[in-house]
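Possible regression after last week's pipeline update?

I re-ran a chain I had predicted before the update to compare outputs. Posting the input and the new output here so someone can diff against the archived version. Not blocking, just want to make sure nothing changed silently.
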Amino acid sequence: MLVALLLIVAGVALFDTRRRVMALEERILMLEAEGQSALAPSMPEPVQVVHSPAEAPPPSTPTAVTRRSPWTEKVAEPEVAAEPEIVSEEAIGQSDYVRPAFGFEELFGRRLPIWAGGVTLAVAGVLLVKYSIDSGLLSPVIRVLLGLIFGAGLIAGAEVALRQEERVRDARVRQALAGAGLATLYAVILAAANLYHLVGPGTAFVGLAGVTALAMGLSLRFGAPSAMLGLVGGLAAPALAGADEPNVPLLSCYLALTIGGLCALSRTQRWMWLGVGALIGGAGWGSLLLLSGTLDLASSLSVGLLILAIGIAFPLFAFSGSRATLIRAVSAVVASAQMAALIATGGFSLLHWALFGLLSVAFLWLSGREPPLRRLMPVGLAVGLLLAGAWPAPAASSFTLVVLGLAMIYGGGALWRLWRPAGGLIEAGQVAGVALGGLAVSTLHYYRGSGADDLRFALIALVASALPAAAVAMGWRNPSRRDDARAALLATSAAILLVLAGIFGLAGWTLPLVVGIVALALLLLAARGGDMRIEYSGWAFAFTAVASLVSGDRGLDELGRLAGLGADAAPGIALLRWSGVALALMLYAWRARLAEGRLVAQIVATLCAYGAIAQVVPVLWLAPIVALGLPLLAEGARRLPPLRLLPALATLFLLTFLWAAEPLLAWIDPAMLSLLGRPMLVSLLPDRADMLLRLALPAALIALAGIRGREAIGPIGRQLGVIAAGLFGMIALHILYKQAFAIADHAAFVRTGFAERTLWETLLIMAGWAAWRQFNQRDVALTLVAAGFAHNLLYTLLLHNPLWAAQAVGSVPLFNLLVPAIAIPLVGLWLAGRMAPDLAERCTRYRDGVHMVLIPLFAFAMLRQLFEGSMLNLPHLSAGEDIGRSVLAIALAVGFLLWGIWRGGRDWRIASLMLMLGAVAKVFLLDASGLTGLLRIASFLALGFSLIGIGWLYSRHLRSDAD
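New output (post-update):
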């Protein structure tokens, strides 16, 4: 505290210092402004301000002031007289205002002494009694009588003060005297009972009750302090009386009278605190009575009636205004909790349930009287159902009576009010809660899983579903039905009960069908009533049907059939389950108003329809059947708006792709390895059945669907269809082609691999030409030609080139596989140029580069074939072949040069020079060292004439270009 005080003082000092510094700064600025005005050449005459005699400022005498400046040593200037200060009337009024002094005298001089005096009088009475006890002057009886006389005298003094109001002029005098008197009476009665044992607990209790009644009466005459003493004393009296075994009915009656009197006083005097305090004390006493132990019949009845009085009756008449509803609601909730405790501790007897019934009826009456208290009804219903569920081993007859009573009070009342102006979601929730909760607690106690129980509870669920169904029927023509979710809530609860009836009464495998039928009923009901909320509920049931379809052991087994795994022992049942759910979802996709839901329903319905087929169709035919659905669905989509069945078509397309995934992966794996040079043997590829049923036939059906359903799938769908059909078709054709050659090992690959590749590449080029000339499909044609060209470059000319790979090309010169193998890329480039002239013109240099590579490659391969035969990769190299390579290089160089001169192609001339330089290097570095005699001379002569000819051609060409 000292530190805080010092901090406060320091803060005040700092604030005052800051204020003074700011005032000083303002004064300095004013003096500087006056000095600048004094140095000015001419000064305007000051404006005279006329003051009243009382406001006349004191005379001022001008003096000389010496000031220092950074530019002058000393500047002496006269001080200008300060202008007379003008003071406004507002400032004068503010200066004359005197703040009222701190209310110390008001608090400690007028207010507290009176109340302190009352307390002092009460303490004096206690001390007087204590003194008499300590000194032994008075007997206990005299002491008690004197105490009663002293208390009564104080109350009489309060009466005198009231009657002498003109002299006293302070109401607190009489309030202090009355309060001291009441406190003295309470203390004397307690001393007589507990200290001197002059009276018994019953007499003391009656005395305390009398003082409490006196306090309430005096509060009407003297004010709130007496009421406060009455509240505390009246609620504490039963505990202070000292009885070891209180009479619970009598105590309940006393508490009811006391709390009722306090509440009545609270209403008449508008002391809300008094009524709230009385209710809180009464609730506390009720809890103590409930915790005291098992109550007999009379005690239970009296406590139950006390709880009803405190929770319902007293708050109803004791309060008014905006807070009354809240107080009544809280009191009712507390009363329901205490009544639940009474039932639980009382053994769930029918008497206790009857008390709870009275409380429920009171809730019903209150909710009708005050609409904001309608929220009490769900609270009471929840408490009743929880108690019914916690009832240990109830007798069937008693349990039936209790549940029917809850249904009549909460369900009947809610049903009567549901579609009236005061009705709403609360009443709909009550009806649903009665139906669902009643079935739940009944199942909890009596369901044992036998066949008889299944039938019994199926009937109970059907009967329970009639309650919300009847509630929907009652309000079907009500114009306010679409304003809220009452109808949807009731329809949903009825649907849940119907599903539960199906679970109890039917075989387990029928659950998806039952839920699907209920979902369809909700869809039709929503369409008939124009209520989207009911449709939302139907969506939940529809997808619950799907979830129940794939759950459990049966569902997992049937789900495996979609991938061709396992076999169903009862395909007929599986077909019925999947087709029923598929039909329900199809109707949702067709009739529902929720656009996003329709898209999802199409997808799931398509999957369920496929699942139904998968239960009875052999695995081998699932892929073509799925693919067959594409053109059939596309044909049907032609009569519908565009893209209406696109989700279903996309789902079938995805299923088709999934079924094709296995042969696709089986083809992709060796195809990827072939990029590294590993032969693609037929033994590594899918068999003919998989190729036909999963690739070839789906490719044709996808193409047919794209043709028949152009508008149904949109441009993106058509493009995807073309890509998928082309991919499936090309891979299927490639697999079929590989099976025709049947290259199963490395030896067969050496013998026929070159021929297989050459024919495949030729077929691709020819297919491209046919697509261009016969069908006018330039893009497809270019794709096929590019595929043949790329295949030739990668596999024939790079990875498996016969010059360095073991590949048989044929033994007859010029009539072997080398000619078509080299001609394929040349023809491909020519066709591409014809198909796309603009593209060919931009790629002229690249095309010439390919020619420059292919021509020498073909020439050297033919040279090698002349000397070695069919296998070109043998390590033997004869002298004739070696010199032939040099001559061939020179000849090619001359040919490239002539072609470049004739076409004006600089790239060809550079290629010629590179060939010539290669030939020169070979002759001088390799051939000259390996040849002797005439061969060496011939090689040098050939090289010399070639160089001379090339030089002459270059010089002539360059001179002609210069001319």
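Follow-up from reviewer: compared with the archived run. The two ends are 114 Å apart (CA to CA). Marking as no regression found.
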